[in-house]
């Protein structure tokens, strides 16, 4: 299916590694001009250079999304490359720790909220005027299944990701008449670098070699982390494909939605 994304301009925050990198690469494969973002310029440039080497088009912006001055500069840089940004993927964020109810502090919650929710708010607010003027835009925010199925630990992260879902539902209603859609994606257990490392470490405790084939490790270790009905973890490509569809003209009547990529894990306990 032709998603009609050729030449569209997309900014993917937090795309120098992990899920964001996977999304940036996936959009580039669909012909999108991708603006790679990260706090480390060398890492962001490495991703952008790989995209270009594979026949795509990419630029780089850097900045800390919790700093107003950085965000303003980043937006100005992004809007100046070819034409205003048409697609925004709010991916930057993360938990930043292992907060639990025995040690939780309000300051940690505030920092997590800033890193996830307010970072997305700052970028979105800065890019909306141009999208409204063009009468077309796509905004996808990456939440988490933790926002819907909060675990006992990392309550700050679960609360922040839940807030992103509510934030996006409000935004979708506010910009619908401007030709802009806003949706969230809530990934479950995804095969990222960090997950791979955690699974291989757990594999050793289960009597496997850390260098065992991934399917063997996945089958043995996944049930220790999550009871996924599909019996496997998701892939970065599957997330990228979902994002590509949501930001495409073909998804023009989908807005305010929260798409779960969890292998059937929801609803659960």
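Sequence proposed for the structure above (269 residues):
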């Amino acid at each position: 299916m032709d998603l009609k994304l050729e030449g569209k301009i997309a900014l993917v925050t937090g795309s120098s590694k992990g899920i964001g990198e996977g999304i940036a690469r996936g959009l580039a494969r669909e012909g999108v001009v991708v603006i790679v973002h990260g706090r480390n310029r060398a890492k962001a440039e490495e991703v952008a250079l790989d995209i270009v080497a594979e026949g795509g088009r990419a630029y780089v912006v850097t900045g800390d999304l919790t700093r107003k001055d950085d965000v303003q500069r980043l937006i100005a840089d992004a809007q100046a490359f070819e034409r205003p940004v048409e697609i925004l993927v709010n991916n930057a964020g993360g938990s930043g720790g292992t907060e639990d109810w025995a040690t939780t502090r309000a300051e940690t919650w505030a920092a997590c909220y800033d890193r996830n929710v307010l970072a997305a708010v700052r970028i979105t607010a800065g890019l909306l005027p141009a999208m409204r003027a063009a009468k077309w835009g796509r905004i996808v925010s990456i939440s988490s299944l933790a926002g819907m199925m909060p675990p006992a630990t990392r309550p700050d992260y679960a609360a922040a990701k839940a807030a992103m879902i509510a934030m996006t539902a409000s935004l979708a209603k506010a910009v619908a008449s401007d030709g802009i859609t806003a949706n969230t994606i809530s990934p479950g257990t995804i095969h990222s670098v960090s997950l791979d490392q955690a699974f291989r470490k757990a594999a050793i405790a289960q009597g496997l070699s850390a260098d065992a084939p991934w399917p063997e490790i996945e089958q043995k270790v996944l049930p220790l982390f999550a009871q996924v009905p599909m019996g496997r973890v998701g892939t970065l490509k599957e997330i990228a494909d979902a994002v590509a569809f949501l930001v495409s003209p073909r998804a023009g009547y989908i807005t305010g939605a929260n798409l779960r990529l969890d292998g059937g894990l929801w609803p659960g306990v």
